[in-house]
Amino acid sequence: MNISKTNIELFEKSIEFLRQDISSLRTGRATPALVEDIIVEAYGTKQPLKAVASISVADAKTINVDPWDKSLSQAVEIAIRNSDVGINPVNDGKLIRLPLPDLNAERRQELIKVLHKKLEQARVSLRKIREDIRSEIDKAEKAKTISEDEKFNEQDDLEKLVKEYNDKVREIGEEKEKEITTI
Questions:
Q1: Is residue 122 within 8 Å of 169, Cβ to Cβ?
Q2: How many beta carbons lie within 10 A of that of residue 110, not counting itself?
Q3: What is the distance between the alpha carbons of residues 134 and 132, in angstroms, rounded to a whole number?
């Protein structure tokens, strides 16, 4: 049986989701990833900001949000203000400017706490995948498609793989934490 390519892809997807998830944590540089997934109430449904507006970077400290439908400007502004990104939008009637304030020590600590929560969610995701694969291995042994020795070998391989991906999560977290704390 051996740990299938599909199972490895599940681990990779968890890591990729983590990378995308923490890209929205502000490090002092303007990037569309900070706001593109903020949920906006538009046309009676909830949609990500990137679905209702164009998002661009004006300079290192400013993000511009240009709603395609100007009647959504207020909804976009409210969604940004109510999100946890800590940015106060400035609406000039045509464009919504998001000036990024400098990160103070307190805000950096808040971001690090959020980062640690996201890292823990990634580790939980990896554990869930591991448990699913373990139950597949147990079922294969009960169905007599693999021997008991093969079962233990596959479980050892699985543990090595999980350790490898947990190390990746740790490295990603350390990199992002360094990025957040660097002034």
A1: yes
A2: 16
A3: 5
Q: Give the CATH fold of the 29-99 domain.
A: Gyrase A; domain 2 (3.30.1360)
Single-letter amino acid code for the residue at 46: K
Locus of tokens 């409210």: 78
Q: How is residue 121 written in tokens?
A: 């969610």
Written as six digits, the tokens of 52 are 């209702």
Cβ neighbours of 43 (radius 10 Å)? 12
Cα torsion for 112, 116, 117, 122, to the nearest 10°? 140
Sign, Cα dihedral of 126, 131, 132, 138: positive
Q: How do strand 96-99 and strand 62-67 relate by DSSP bridges? A: antiparallel
Q: 5-22+104-181: what fold?
A: Topoisomerase I; Chain A, domain 4 (1.10.132)
Cα dihedral value 169, 114, 183, 167, nearest 10? -10
Walk along the chain (183 residues) in steps of 10 and give the mean pLDDT of each run: 76 91 73 84 88 88 89 88 82 87 79 89 94 92 90 92 94 89 73
> Looking at the DSSP assignment, which residues form a beta bridge with residue 39?
48
Name the token pair of 183. Answer: 């002034």
Chain centroid to Cα 102, Å, comes to 22
